[in-house]
Amino acid sequence: MKVITLCSVICAVLLVGTALPTPEEEYQRYDGHKVYRVTATTREHLHLLKSMEDQAKEGILFWLIGGALNSDTDVMVSPEREDEILSTFETAGMSYKTLIEDVQTLVGNQTPDIEHQSLRAEEVTSSLNWTAYHRLDVIYNWLDELAETYPDLVEVIVIGNSYEGRLIKGIKITFDENNPGIFIEGGMHAREWITPATVTYLTNEILTSTNEAFNLLARAHNWFIFPNTNPDGYEYTHTTNRMWRKTRKPYDNDCWGADPNRNWDYYWLTNGGASNNSCSETYAGSEPFSEVEVKALADYIASVSDKFHIYLSIHSYSQLILLPYGYTYEHLDNYAEALNVGEIAADALAKRYGTEYIVGSTAEAIYIASGTSTDYVKGVHNTPIVYCYEFRDTGTYGFLLPAEQIIPNSLEFIDSLIAVIGETRNLGYPEVHTIG
Ligand SMILES: [Zn+2]
Hints:
By secondary structure, the protein is of the alpha/beta class. Helices cover 38% and strands 16% of the residues. The chain is built from 14 helices and 12 strands. Strands 5-6-8-7-9-12-10-11 form an 8-stranded mixed sheet, sandwiched between helices. Strands 2-3-1-4 form a 4-stranded antiparallel sheet, with helices on one face. The protein is globular and about 60 Å long. It starts with a helix and ends in a 10-residue tail after the last helix. Mean pLDDT is 90; it is low at 1-25 and 115-119. Zinc ion binds at residues 189, 192, 261, 315. Residues 189, 192, 261, 315 line the site of zinc ion.
């Protein structure tokens, strides 16, 4: 009896020890890492930042990559390399300021219930909430549950598998087959946790809201919603590295993943709006649609492109509403109306909490970025109203937005969405829309 008891204790310890490696081995911590905002005011500054990003050395990670003069670049720096990197900025004559004093503190704040990040197992519950960030399975389970709860309205759509074999799952909400549609994708960049959180909040509101104005608009449309379009990357941010951005496909130079929002087959890798270096955060992939997640989404979009007239690609952070194009400074054919709708949407968004968004084309408002989903949807499918939202905030927390901000971010986003839908309707879409 004693032997059995002893064995059961030792065996349990051994088993746990094998199954659950220590946090140090398993999860990348960011103790003492700071985020600096650097401003490039000359071409030389831009080249220097670009080469630092391309080198992708240990201890430096670019959060925002400013590609234009006077644009901000946010860089996370390890304590070991801090002196050297700051002296590089100073020598080059670049001004900088500290945005975040200790990244690990903010990472811990986002997941307060879990002491050791590597053990972030989350029970798969039967419903979702918006007071915390959740694992992929919890979100996917909730989508399944919606289809069970609203069988006449909600259909689960699986468009394919990720590189590591996870489902790429979304839903279609059909209020009436003849309704015009709205397509929304989130989670393309893995570390932008606020995007699946807000997209699922919106989904819940579409089905359950008591706000009459929103209800009327929501039910006059059909919805294609994909909260997590980069499932491998998203899980990786929960299990291994909170700051991961790309997919998880292995590439050369021992680097992993391509930027799924630089991988679309429309002016791919054009005008310097992405990188051909596999170690870069904006690696465009080995060819257009080299990422199976992106190809699956593009194929699905093509199959339903005549069923939606509004397309939203959801990202964070910076508080922007971006129109195509990113690969060129040339304007859209309906630039004036798309800009106007965007500005009305930004005004509506600001009303609730005063959150200010800037509106403009990707190339003009931030920098040249090629191979994005919004350029592709606009350029290939000629969808009338296409925006990329960059959600909260402007750098206080960056990607590590506290969970308490999920609902406020969602509410102001929905305010802006009501404006987008209403103004788009006022313009006569989708009736005037013909597929190009
Ligand atoms: Zn993003």
